[in-house]
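Contributing new records

If you add data, match the layout below exactly. Sequence lines come first and carry their own label; structure lines follow with theirs. Keep one chain per record. Anything else will be rejected by the validation script.
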Amino acid sequence: MAAIIETRGLTRRYGRQTAVDRLDLEVREGEIFGFLGPNGAGKTTTILMLLGLTEPTAGSARVLGHDPVLDPLPIKRQVGYLPENVGFYDDLTAWENLQYIADLNRIPRSDAARKIESALATVGLSDVGDKPVGAFSRGMRQRLGIAELLVKDPRLLILDEPTLGLDPDGTLKMLDLIRDLNRSRGITVMFSSHLLDQVQRICHRVGIMIQGRLVALGTLEELARRKLGDTAGSSLEEIYMRYFKEG
């Protein structure tokens, strides 16, 4: 599979602090990639550089073949980004919020109505499309956040802690939704999280960040073989803790 995200020596420093240290990363088209690490490991800073929202101190990145610093607009058109805290206009309905996003993306009204209807159905919010978002639970807001991304037909979704703060039912619905979008629509997903069980449940490959450095990259089986010498019954938690202690 071709690389949809590729970085070489990507680095971001803030004064004397190095948030991301010489990152060499590859996310393949069509996969769900788990970007794993504790809070403060450099995951969000990496994402911001991939989106062209923060410039690297050194190194380079390519997203969908484009440089986020020199050519960010094609990336913004084809990539959907769900931050940790999704913002909506609480006094507007779900439909009105999505219409606003469609207008910002210059989607014709005739096309927007179809896309909004489809997006709400995909995330299971068709029956509340006319309700003010201020009355939504966190889980509903997160799913509406996914619907917002789907309105522009993205090739790549970058999700930053999408299940944070959700109850078990909301978490399960979100993970099922991510997996379905990958399987049924072929959307590549970069799933950033510090929750090991969720990453293990849905991701094809994982990268582990610790203190700004990528210390591991591969499938669960590959990482278990490298670090534990055996893949039988190995969990991502065992692998992660071994890397974490050494990191």
